[in-house]
Amino acid sequence: MSEILLLHEPLIRLGIFLLVLAAMALWEFRAARREQRIRRWQRWPGNLSILVLDTLAVRLLFPLAAVGAALVAAERGWGLFHLLSAPLWLALPLSVLLLDAAIYFQHRLFHAVPWLWRLHRMHHADLEFDVTTGLRFHPLEILISMAIKVAVVTLLGAPAVAVLIFEVLLNATSMFNHGNVRLPEWLDRRLRLIVVTPDMHRVHHSIVRRETDSNFGFNLPWWDRLFGTYRDQPGAGHLGMTLGIEAFRDPRELRLDRMLIQPLLNPKPSTAQSGGQEPQG
User: Fold this and answer.
1) Is the pTM of this model over 0.70?
2) Which coarse location class describes where this protein primarily resides (predicted)?
3) Where are the domains positioned within the chain?
């Protein structure tokens, strides 16, 4: 069973990824939340190319990835749930929940530590907000994130099937909550009780620092409410808010080569542009 899961894990994740990506792209085309001034042909090549580099980097340096770490931990009896001999019906949901909490705190860490923010700000520097923004992360950030994830999986002794479910959910919800899609207000209100919605997460991509430093959740919305980082709406409204980072307003920064070297750059932001300042951590 373990060998079958490890063998088919990439195909399972790829199949669901392509399905969600296509569904979200179609939804954006049919019912966009905001009009985009920067066209897809200017943004999507860089955003999708960085995804390819991220995937190659992870497969090269973490060939077994998080699911493989779970299988190794199970074989050797490592981790809390193995030490407690926790049944699968208990270990599975707790693993998904605790892994999501770990991602929440990791996200806050990437905002709080200056050198980690330099990596993470590439995600925020997208000048628009759509499904491909949810795929846009610097390769070094992805590698650090995977190392943290592997450590958490090992410490928990999370079941491999729980890790696979978590990975699929995280990838799918990241594309969903970055979607430039319209939801009826009543539905958004109900959905954000159990999942991070696009309107909830869009606040996090505001150019205004106090809004950027809120709504850190990717999958479950509960951590933001529990730890005081929840913000209901952007001050300027969803149609009036400015997205991105003040220091990276030039569309040429959307090119792949510029995205890769962005952590090395230290341009001076123009605070007059948004009335705020670039998050520094």
Assistant:
1) yes
2) membrane
3) 2-273
